[in-house]
Amino acid sequence: GKREGRPIQGKREDKPAADRATSELPTGGPFLITPDGQFAISQAGAALRLAPNISDDLQTGAKIPPHLAAATDVNVGHLLLLMPDGLTLKQYSYPEMKWQKSYNLSALAHQLAFDGQSGRLYLAVIDPRALRERPRARGVGDVHVYEMKEWRSSR
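Structure (tokenized):
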């Protein structure tokens, strides 16, 4: 993929030169900035390293699978990815980005949020049967909450 960065300092009239780079990793689509500001996690499957100086910013970090949603907890050292099937959650080490475990979900998820203090994972889900029945109301779905002691932050 292609990356392009521009500094946002200076006057509005200034036209700073763009810093362009290419990567062997897919970088398109929505992304998540990790809470510690170390990575941009691309939904297409790339973890790009972030840095305050433009020459070191947006550098290739790790290749991760394409996913629907992601959440990190830097204190616990986890990166959680919701896979495109909506039924699988993958846990990676953070900041190493190494696969650790996979979890099968009981409902079709499309979004997630993680609270490291409590060790709770919140998933926005919908029953797959509801898709077949084509409900007229929008916003139909549930929030499933998963709690695991190993996910709790000790800080």
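The chain has one helix and 13 strands. The longest strand covers residues 108-115.
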